[in-house]
Amino acid sequence: MQRMAIDLTKRNLIRLGAMGVIAPSWLAGCSTANSCVQDKQRTPQLIGGSIRHNGEFDVVIAASGTQPIHQLPLPGRGHGVAIHPHQPLAVMFGRRPGTYAMVFNYQSGQMESLLLAPKQRHFYGHGVFSSCGQWLYATEGERSSSRGIIGVYDTQRGYNKIDEFTGFGVGPHEVIVMADGTLAVGVGGVHTDGRTPLNLTTMRPSLVYLSATGELLEQVSLTDHRKSIRHLAHDGDEVVLTGQQYRGEADFYVPLVALHKRGQPMQELGGEPEDWARFNHYIASIAANKHHIVATSPRGNCYGIWDKESMNLLQINVLPDASGVVVKDGQFFISSGAGKVVKIAPDLTVKMMGSPTQWDNHWQMIT
What we know:
CATH class: Mainly Beta
Largest sheet: 5 strands, antiparallel
Protein name: DUF1513 domain-containing protein
Structural class: mainly beta
Organism: Vibrio qingdaonensis
CATH superfamily: YVTN repeat-like/Quinoprotein amine dehydrogenase
Helix content: under 10%
Distance between the termini: 32 Å
């Protein structure tokens, strides 16, 4: 197995600052990570990225969608969050093409480790822990080719990289773990220089299933190769939900959410072209409970609700910079970059709450 020691603990932050990896303002922020604690007795429930008014970035741990408990500064804009299944640890991944993954304790609000991508590699912004908690799987890419890689890090050995899975395509974005331990990977299919796409006419997106040891188990695609499969969720059982970014004609509006069961073709959710136009070619986050599916679009400033059984579109609702969506006890919680949180009850009753946090990209529920 390949072993790559790129784990950098808190002891090394001063050295990183001297090297120019971390800005002095970020180093100063590490000593005040607990400054926004409102009530130490509250239990952390939600973790997500945020943008400060001065343009700097944080990861926020909140007891609810409205009040932060801890706020840790990040070395760059964050994207996806992975939460350890058994310990009070989480990882924030840098936004694509990301240079870091930061491990922190969400109970204490302290950083544990900082993983840096080698110069020839980058993180794609997402990762997930194995069900046992020993392995951290991260979507990564080779800068010169966007060759897709799942980096495997050993959480019991200082988050050293011990393996890499590859050979499944270009531009993986999100990886999730299914109930049986199988990995599902949303492969965007796009080769990029930074964030500039280079192969839109030949892109080959897919949904890939890998074993816990990297064996390719299944690979399926949508009929339109211009739909880059990016964001994933599952319903706790066998259904994988995929959110797409459409890379075709600007005035052509197509379904952007699909579901899949192993051994079957992908099925796209319902909606007329004028409905899908509201999402502005991009789905950010997806979640499902027993009866409904919710998907957000920050570019479209909205979120949609579908009936899970019929796959019919039920609602599209306005929400500026609609970002993360999670489920707890059958209720959906949606974050917004405009300082709003939407709570949707199982009967689809909606409650809007204000938040002091300008939420950014994704968030996760601590279970």
